[in-house]
Amino acid sequence: MVRPLEQAVATIVCTFREYAGRCGDKHKLCQAELKELLQTELPNWTPTEFRDCDYNKLMSALDTNKDCEVDFVEYMRSLACLCVCCHDHFKDCPPEPPCSQ
């Protein structure tokens, strides 16, 4: 039986691999791939009013080695920050609602 955290890790890795390499390096996300990943996989968390300049800023923030792509480590840092923000938001709530949604 697969535990939820095991499934979450597999999903994180598989999602990155699904989008990476469509435009080039199969181990990195270009800005178009990152944008598609965010819009498709996090539609409720990606503002619909995001403009290309907003994606440029996000890409610049995530691309710490400045190679104009987001590698898996940079992707994981962004997900870790997202998890910390969610944890902070829900830390005073009962554990059931955030985990069941």
Automatic annotation (TrEMBL):
SUPFAM superfamilies: EF-hand. GO terms for molecular function: calcium ion binding; calcium-dependent protein binding; transition metal ion binding. Residues 5-47 form the S100/CaBP-9k-type calcium binding subdomain domain. Keywords: Calcium, Metal-binding, Repeat. The keyword Repeat applies. Pfam families: S_100 (PF01023). The keyword Hydrolase does not apply. Belongs to the S-100 family. This is S100 calcium binding protein A3. It comes from Molossus molossus. The lineage of its organism: Eukaryota, Metazoa, Chordata, Craniata, Vertebrata.
